[in-house]
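Hi support team,

I submitted a single chain yesterday and got back a structure, but I'm not sure I'm reading the token output correctly. Could someone confirm the output below corresponds to the sequence I sent? I've pasted both exactly as they appear in my results page.

Thanks,
R.
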Amino acid sequence: MSSTDYRPDIDCLRAFAVISVIAFHYDIPPFRSGYVGVDVFFVISGFLITRIIHDEASAGTFSFAAFYRRRARRILPAAFAMLCATLVGASLILLPQETVSVAQQAVAVLTFSSNILFWSQQSYFDGAAIAKPLLHTWSLGVEEQYYVLFPALALAVFALRRAQMLAILAAACAVSFLLCVVQTRMQPAAAFYLLPARAWQLALGALLAVEALPALRSERLRIAATTLGWIALGASVNIFSPRTLYPGTAALLPCLGTAAVIWGKPALPRTVLMLARPMMAVGLWSYSLYLWHWPVVSFATAIWGPPGSAINKLALLCGCTTLALASFYLIEQPARRADWPGTARALAATGAAALAASVVMISASGFPNRFSPQQRAMADFLGYDHRDVYEEGRCFLAPGQTVEALQPACLAKGPHPNILLWGDSHAAHLAHGLKLALPQATLLRATMAQCVPYDEPGQSAACTAFNRRLPGLVRNLAPDTVILSGNWTHTAMAPAARTSLLATIRTITDAGSRVVVVGPSPQFDRALPHLLIAATRFGVTTEGHMPNLFGEVDGFLRAQLKDRPRTDYVSLLALLCPGAACILQAPDGAPIAWDQGHFTAQGSELAATGIVRGSPALSASLPDERD
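Hi R., thanks for writing in. Yes, this is the structure output for that exact sequence:
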């Protein structure tokens, strides 16, 4: 198979991959799991790169210099142009600390290590992905590391007998896949971002390139394989939910679907080729489309918030497509045709300019003088240190910890009334305020990140164990009241979740304690300090930035718990968003939340005061004002 053979089906696969990714990032249905497009790209890359190296090695014409020159021509010109434009955009639009972060991301892109940077930044309270305009370059980091390591290894393997070559490639694929499955459960960020757990997808393409599977001789079989592959791909973009552990075994569906399409390779009639021409064109533009789509939506979100209407999404698509076509025709294509010495000099100059600009942006702390003192003070909340306020690591546990990690002071009873706070981070962010709002009570705390106080699909084993232990603690501690709070989302309205929550409440009341369920806290479509600054910088309205979902969940919980014995329901939305507009700032001007919905200390105090006065069980704990 010649490395120069054109495969229109691969351009269609590229188009499918990039459309899936863009539709997912722009929230265009039905691509709710369109992120699988990256997996499709990896399989394609493994196939094409291996085919080139194998064919040239077999012909005795392979050259490392020529290989890397082709890769540089293909990847770097458009990437460097996007990088420079993103640095300029960051310095004009983003906040100082975000501008510094973009500069750091740019350095990682220039050193082919952006996937490692983003992996290292992962944590439960990590900043929103949309605020990182170069986040999408993590996949380029994986591919670039593959380009660096694979050619030498491939030549060594290709020098062996065919059976040995296939065995080594298959073993590498299997080992990487097993690592991916294990890491997805234990170290999900590493499985997602790093090469070792992604290598099996590239190796799958490599196995196809060396024809590990015999060619299908029957046209019917080729059509069947291709059809099944496209069906698998079509299912993969809408079958997974946000709770799906990914990549793990779930990534088999898009990867095997891609492999089936590449393996099938039916002889396409002229009519089909004509109909597929738009997809083939998108496939040719796919690299530039991928490069530009994320900075466009990232910067637009920094100004106006996530695109909510169809018109806004269409505008983003038009902007992304315009930039991508300009990139393809003015940068990608000319760079491939230009003489190499001139291209190399241009790349070196552009890379040096991007590196110098990044160093200046970091050294200048993101040019803070662009903002007023009030805006800078508000921006500081984006780096809010919540650890002491939430008692992280003491009473607020990480997802992998157990009940035994709760420090004794968290569960130390005192004079009555004793009140136990149980839930996830949306319970932990109430602890500070409740201590102040209940001065004569003893507040016990047992909270865990990503662990709502009921059984939820996809929750960790540690969370399940934590929730199984809490009823026993309730019986042993016999608190007067148990406060249940969590990040209530649409999953709370599922029949199984409702049954689990009601069973939890029944267990508590049967043990003699009262229950107070605190409804969803206000959550916004971006970090609240962002929204408040955008309102002063760009004239953006602060209304309409809370998804309707939380109002629906609030109403559902209120209805479910209305007549439950010994149970109070307190609506935070009614307290903090009494009308069309929410209370966004505390009396001292601090935002009530430092990210999309986790309270600052001031927000916690504001919310807790309303919770205590809104619950008969808790308000009975207040000192009598007549005393």
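A quick pointer for reading it: The mean pLDDT is 93. Let us know if anything else looks off.

Best,
Support desk
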